[in-house]
Design goal:
With 291 residues, the chain is an alpha+beta fold. The protein is built from 10 helices and 7 strands. It has a 4-stranded antiparallel beta sheet with strand order 2-5-6-7, with no helix packed on it. Strands 1-4-3 form a 3-stranded antiparallel beta sheet, with no helix packed on it. The relative contact order is 0.09.
């Protein structure tokens, strides 16, 4: 992307009120559709419904194309006031659900915060060193989102890879797009690179693990600590047996390291085996015994 195009996007658009409202409606409906489509579940295309990285982009886009601090604050507020409720309302209309009443209240504080954030954010356009301090909390927030989705991608590659790349690109892009002063741009880009490196490295030093219990001893599956449980492919993780005093039962405990389909075996002291198919995802799983 050339510098000319970047400067056009971040400061060269005549962002009128009708454009803001149309943009909010289109993006709100698009987000709702991405959440509802089965093919986009647990992918980068549905991530924008639950995390901030893409909404940060739209907020900065509005700020950089506003005509004053007041204009920036009001346009950011109205954009999010329209787009966020639409995500839930569209789903409610199509699915007959009640997501708006259940979940939208969680976004109300963020929507209200758009007023001061849009107002303060406008002063990044003054091209001063303190403008970088205004941007820094946003970059740190982006780094946290990058960490979350790097973890998801490591666990279930290539899912969420586009979100990871989006976070990396915008962490470096925003200082270059917002500021004209070469020293500020370079300092911001270096900070973006350091944030990126730190959060990605952390996830490789401490890879994601999904810790859960996948089987409970009872009428159907009766076992204790004399049994042995293991995954047929150890790259997916490790199994062990543990006793839960609260329910007075033995459990097959899993430390899962990778998404995918494999099998696990529950073997008795006499060598009798019961084998199960297991489909592992980042925060859920399904099992079915092979008869």
């Amino acid at each position: 992307m050339s510098n000319k195009i970047i400067k056009k996007i971040f400061g060269g658009v005549n962002l009128t009120w009708p454009k803001v409202i149309i943009m909010a409606i289109v993006i709100g409906i698009y987000t709702a559709v991405m959440v509802m489509l089965e093919i986009t579940k647990d992918t980068s295309f549905s991530d924008l419904a639950v995390t901030f990285e893409v909404w940060i982009f739209w907020g900065i886009f509005i700020i950089m194309n506003s005509k004053s601090a007041k204009d920036s604050a009001l346009k950011c507020f109205i954009f999010f006031l329209i787009s966020q409720p639409l995500i839930y309302l569209v789903q409610d209309v199509i699915n007959g659900s009640s997501l708006f009443m259940t979940y939208y209240r969680n976004w109300i504080p963020f929507t209200i915060a758009c007023l001061p954030m849009g107002f303060i954010g406008y002063f990044m356009k003054k091209d001063k060193w303190w403008g970088l301090l205004i941007l820094l909390p946003i970059m740190i927030l982006l780094g946290l989102q990058l960490s979350i989705y790097t973890s998801y991608t490591i666990f279930s590659f290539p899912r969420h890879l586009l979100t990871v790349l989006f976070c990396i690109v915008t962490l470096i892009l925003y200082p270059l797009a917002i500021f004209n002063n070469k020293k500020i741009r370079l300092t911001g880009a270096v900070i973006g690179c350091l944030i990126t490196l730190a959060f990605i490295t952390w996830n490789f030093i401490k890879p994601p693990v999904y810790s859960t219990d996948i089987l409970v001893s009872g009428n159907e599956y009766n076992f204790d600590n004399t049994y042995h449980a293991y995954l047929t492919d150890s790259k997916y993780g490790d199994l062990s047996l543990r006793y839960e005093e609260a329910i007075e039962s033995w459990l097959v405990h899993a430390e899962l390291k990778k998404a995918g389909k494999t099998q696990f075996v529950l073997e008795s002291p006499s060598g009798e085996k019961r084998t199960f198919d297991i489909n592992i995802q980042r925060d859920t799983y399904t099992i079915e015994e092979i008869m």
